[in-house]
Amino acid sequence: MDELKQVDGLRLYRELPQNGLVTMALISALTGWSRVTLWRKIKAGELPPPRKIGRALRWSKADVDAFLGECGRQEVQHGH
């Protein structure tokens, strides 16, 4: 089930325009991390804080691209 969420999340993410906004649920689906883990990464400065739009929290696709790229580099460096 989690793999299906990641595949769907990746498809949705790829379809977003470059200036699109990303939800926490989509980041969670892409990474497989829980909301709590994502908040820890925000607090640690690993993931930029979200933008508040009304009551909603969103990230720019560019910020998420940079974050996901950095995660991939860290996994390669650490052998995960």
Compile the SSE list and pairings:
Layout lengths: L1 H14 L5 E2 L1 H8 L3 H9 L7 E3 L2 E5 H18 L2
Antiparallel strand pairs: 1-3, 2-3
Helix pairs in contact: 1-2
Mind telling me the CATH class? Mainly Alpha
The outline comes out as globular
- What's the story with the biggest beta sheet? 3 strands, antiparallel
Separation, N- and C-terminal Cα atoms = 22 Å
Total domain count = 1
Main sheet strand line-up:
1-3-2
Could you estimate the helical fraction of the residues in percent? Answer: 55-70%
β-strand amount: 5-15%
Summarize it.
It is built from four helices and three strands. By secondary structure, it is α+β, with helices and mostly antiparallel strands.
Care to describe what's here?
By secondary structure, the protein is an alpha+beta fold. The chain has one domain (2-78): Multidrug-efflux Transporter Regulator, Chain: A, Domain 2, CATH 1.10.1660. It has 4 helices and 3 strands. Strands 1-3-2 form a 3-stranded antiparallel beta sheet. Helix 1 crosses helix 2. The relative contact order is 0.15. Mean pLDDT is 83; it is low at 75-80.
Question: What structural keywords apply?
Answer:
3-stranded antiparallel beta sheet; Multidrug-efflux Transporter Regulator, Chain: A, Domain 2; 3 strands; 80 residues; alpha+beta
